[in-house]
Known about the structure:
- There is one protein chain.
- Helices cover 55% and strands 6% of the residues.
- The chain has 430 residues and is mainly α.
- It folds into 2 domains: 1-116 and 380-430, no CATH class; 121-355, no CATH class.
- The strands form 3 sheets. The protein has a 3-stranded mixed β-sheet with strand order 1-3-2. It has a two-stranded antiparallel sheet with strand order 4-5. The chain has a two-stranded antiparallel ribbon with strand order 6-7.
- Strand 2 and strand 3 (108-113) form a beta hairpin.
- Helix 7 (162-177) packs across helix 9 (193-213).
- The chain is globular.
Amino acid sequence: MRTLVLGLVALITINATALTKHSKHIAQLQKTFGKINKDKPIVYLDRDTLGALFAQSVDETHHVSAIQNFVMEKSGVYIDAPDADTLMKLFKFNYISASLVKNKNNEKVCVIIPSNPNFNQEQSNIRLLGWYTDVEIEGMTKEPLYNAPEFINKKIVDPLSREVMELMSDLHETFHCLDNNYLPKAMKHEVDFHMIHKSETFAEVGALLYLSKMGYKDIMEKRAQLREVGSTFSNKYISINPLNPGPWGAIYSLQRPIRSIASHLENEFIVSWDLSKIIEFANAITEIESLNTHEFYAMESYFSDPELLSNYIEEYTHPNYDFEYLKNRFLIVKQTVESYNESLANSYDLLLEDILPSDAPTIQNEMTFDVNSDCPDLNYNVDLDNFDQTVDELRNIHYLKNSSDKGFDDLLLKNLYRCYVLNTTSSNLD
């Protein structure tokens, strides 16, 4: 017990001063976007700050309290324990998301679970393809989606940088919080999947516009390919959101709006835009380029039952069919499906290339961490006064190696503290 107390005192002292690159990134997002809307502040849950707090106790009521206190400190809004508990579970599940939380006093706060700082470039890109997700593949046991026939012995050609993928994830969720149009409507009508598609379009376009303002270039096409291929085969093999099943292949059909951004910006000087202009432009592109009701029906039906949809198309577009409204509707549906199949084939060929089985990525998806076997090897003593620097160094090694053979939990600050700060007591905090 004496060792445990000393360990916790050291941890608390370090946590007060430690600032990893991830924490600095989150602090900058908080400063930039946190108070844009006074009636709906935004809070980014710092994975490292909270991870250090979580390491101090296995009692999840303490973790819930830590999230409540963190949100209160950043926004002035006290969130109720059940909402904080939901956020904690999403946080631990590595579920990157934005959640609008309303407390008993009707105060609102938008809480973002940001990108995982332990993702390297390869992991960041293949996450968007769903390769980590365990699925039932015909003739096989349950295993990662990477082993599906469409992906086995493939790799991504010229993946986007880790920095871009991290920013895209965090900005995408930020624009969900800044969405005062589509997301509120989608939340009022939970089965309005078309409105959810529009909210995803707005968030994606807003994030890409903001990255363009920051000076990032030549990222649109690769992002479109990742979205198109990822949403298609995630929909085929899994439900992207198992907590809320829906036509996610159609919802995340974002390739057209993404590809349209460059043409819409052709005569614009986006570097000079403020955030309100970006939001206005993202709304406009969403209205013009997102799937309309006929197109969304086409994609939703095609992913659900392509054979049935094909029969409908054949029947309702027949020259002798005389109900003009349905004929026109299914002509649009037919054109949408044909255009999608052509676009998907092109994206698939450009995004992925064949590799030797020996060069295939090792997909490590275990969400467990054994402090007795999984601690990174260090050939030097850990400087507890500069532990944040040690964390960044370990992550940089992981980034440079750029392999997917390391589980997401290996470099979580919570587990690194258990390895090197709590040391002899860590086995008691599993």
